[in-house]
Design goal:
By secondary structure, this protein is α/β, with parallel strands linked by helices. It has a single domain, classed as NAD(P)-binding Rossmann-like Domain (Rossmann fold). It contains 7 helices and 7 strands, in the order βαββαβαβαβαααβ. The chain has a 7-stranded parallel sheet with strand order 3-2-1-4-5-6-7, sandwiched between helices. The longest helix has 25 residues. The protein starts with 6 loop residues before the first strand and ends in a 7-residue tail after the last strand.
Length: 232
Amino acid sequence: MSLSGKTILVTGASSGIGRATALALHAAGATVHGTSRQRDRVPKEIERHSCDLLSEKKIARLFHKLPPLDAVINCAGKAYLSPISDGNPVEWETMWRVNVHGLALCCQHAVRKLNNHGTLINVSSMSGWRVPPTGGFYSPTKFAVRAITEALRNELRAKASTLRVGSISPGFVDTPLLNDYFKGREDQLNEQRKQTKMLSPEDVASSIVHMLTTPSHVEIGDVQIRGVDQKL
């Protein structure tokens, strides 16, 4: 479906789901603005912006210079295997500040920047619906993403806003994020790849395109998506 004439922001557009989403939206005809801490890694087809979600000032500066938007897709995130019992609090803080605080700030700025019938989509995770054995501190951040999404939706409905808000919750997706999550457990990651046909970033991107191209009165609250052979 065509998104011609639409202007869309994608955070985390330099790799994984963010990169695939930015390219899919561009292919559908949208003008896409993509952010990354490493601006040069954003695809050349995309309007590139440098932004670090750890910085409130940089987030505010990014949205200030953007044109009016038809959609914002919050893809940026961090994932570390960091248990509650003995995990690294520095990793906890990074995940919380990027996955939760930074995302919430982007949501707040997006509400001010989106057109009347704009759409906001937050990339969550199946780890935001259930806690896997290795979920650690990552899983709570994704539960928070779902809560932020629903809280924002309730606030907008109370104001009779026509903005659409939703999330997408992928299972295992074969992206560079897994390299951080499985750091020190590379054998386990290799075994996972052998046993399970993981989703590709493009699989998730296609669902995001679908969420954006439904009729304006249709709001998709969440999409759970995972490979058919993923057990949990």
